[in-house]
Design goal:
Helices cover about 15% and strands about 55% of the residues. The chain has about 150 residues and is mainly beta.
Amino acid sequence: MKTRTIALTMALCFLAAAACLASDVNMGTWKLNEAKSKFPPGATKNQKVVYEAAGDQVKVALDGMTADGKSLHIEWTGKYDGKFYPLTGDAGVDERAYKQINAHTMEITSKKGGKIVSTSRIVVAADGKSRTVTSSGTNSKGAKVTTVAAYDKE
């Protein structure tokens, strides 16, 4: 009886997590709309961003191009709880925290070696078909930079 209760409780938890992730407007594939974006010279451009469920967490995969034409693939898996989770594929960032502000807005903080290197705000349009990511940070030369990346949902 106890085993059955535990199994049922676990199943309900997984269903609840799946329902929450299914209602996440960020889920899916986003393609960069360069015409609506504003990048400073030498900025990395993430051409494609994919959000998908990974158990009770979210996996974010970014495919982009550095200023010198090298491709990059960045991955992060975690929760939108404001806690830092490891990130791979970006030499300038080793951990990132996503914090859900409301159904259409998130804040991101990125760190390297325990130091904050950038902050971002993601806003998904009310219709869920586009989103804007505004990021502020410091480039490799120590200068403050701001980027505005516009994405369309595929």
